[in-house]
Amino acid sequence: MSSARRESAAVRVLRTSIIVITMILACGPVLYGVLLSLRPFASVLNNPLDLVPGLDEISFDAYTAAIRPTSAGGYGLGSFLLNSLILGVATVIVSILVSILGAYATARIRFSGRSVGNAIIVAVYMFPGVVLAVPLFVLLSRAGLTGNLLGLVIVYVALTVPVSLYMLRNYFIALPSSIEDAALIDGCSLMGVIWRIVLPIALPGIAATAMYIFMIAWNEYLYALLFLVQARDLWTAPLGIAQLTDFDTPVTILLAGSIVVTIPVVVLFVFAQRLLISGLAAGAEK
User: Fold this and answer.
1) Closest by CA position to 82, among listed 236, 232, 212, 227
2) How far apart are alpha carbons 243 and 47 in whole angstroms?
3) What is the C-alpha separation between 251 and 233, in angstroms, rounded?
4) Phi, psi (deg, nearest 5) at residue 47
5) Per-residue pLDDT tens for 214-250?
6) Which whole-number Å values give the CA distances from 146 to 81, 135, 230, in the listed order?
7) Of 144, 167, 32, 36, which is closest to residue 96 (Cα–Cα)?
């Protein structure tokens, strides 16, 4: 009994140590970057290893310079954040509307080629983005949709619909079908079943899928560079961060811009963490 207690205590100590070390390795560089971004650039050059800035050194000038428009002497990150927000919200709305109907059809309605369609959905999601970049660029160039946000929204919808279909399909499969059958017997139409019964029950999974799609659209870089490289006013936040990597950009500006771009996704995840995890777990069930 005593050896078992000692063993369990040792396991607890080891587990705690691993968690603490992992947290330090994961959060340490981020915290160090935040502290550096609050110091003047000259102070960082003179003493880059100082972890805690003095009270007289704390300044938010790097953040204001990163967000300020280029016409006012800044780096224009504020407008890039707004462009990313527009793209993310538009992509979420269109992808969710399309995916709800498609996922419900593949989960509940039996039709010829259903299994083949599900396999194609997964296969499309597994294609690397570089493989689809050239065909999408040629197609949208001929349609005159390059150099604007509408074309990029179409690209993001094409990229996110397969994964949202897959997630929502598995979530719908996990839902009990007895309530839907009872509603159909009572005379409710199929669209009525989806709107009045399925969507309220599946709301956690839909919300989790929407947040995942938003994070994909918010962090995407390759297609934004390909379609908006010549339209600087429409650049997204990742493109704005990429411009800050120039050698003449102070490191405090680069750190401040990176932190500002990261904050919306972190805040979204913190406030919806439980909903996101439960939705993803339910969507992963077979």
Assistant:
1) 236
2) 26
3) 23
4) -135, 75
5) 988 999 988 998 888 888 888 999 998 888 776 577 8
6) 20, 13, 10
7) 167
Nearest to 158 by CA among 180, 189, 135: 135
The CA-to-CA distance between both ends of the chain, in Å, stands at: 41
Query: 84 pLDDT exceeds 90?
Result: yes
What pLDDT is stored for residue 83 in this prediction? 93
Q: Across residues 264-270, what is the average pLDDT?
A: 80
Give the CA angle between residues 140, 146, 150 to the nearest 5°: 90
Residue 284: predicted pLDDT: 43
Angle at which helices 203-219 and 273-283 cross, to 10° = 100
Percent of the chain with pLDDT over 70: 88
**Spatial CA neighbour of 100 closest among 156, 151, 171, 152:** 171
3-state helix, strand, coil in the chain (%, to 5): 80, 0, 20
Encoded amino acid at 206, one letter:
I
Q: Which long-range contacts (C-beta less than 8 Å, at least 24 apart) are formed by 269-276?
A: 269/211, 269/215, 272/207, 272/211, 275/204, 275/207, 275/208, 275/211, 276/207, 276/208, 276/211, 276/212
Calpha distance 59→77 (Å, rounded): 18
To 10 degrees, the CA torsion angle through 89, 92, 96, 98?
A: 90
CB atoms within 10 A of CB 30: 14
Q: What is the pTM of this model?
A: 0.80
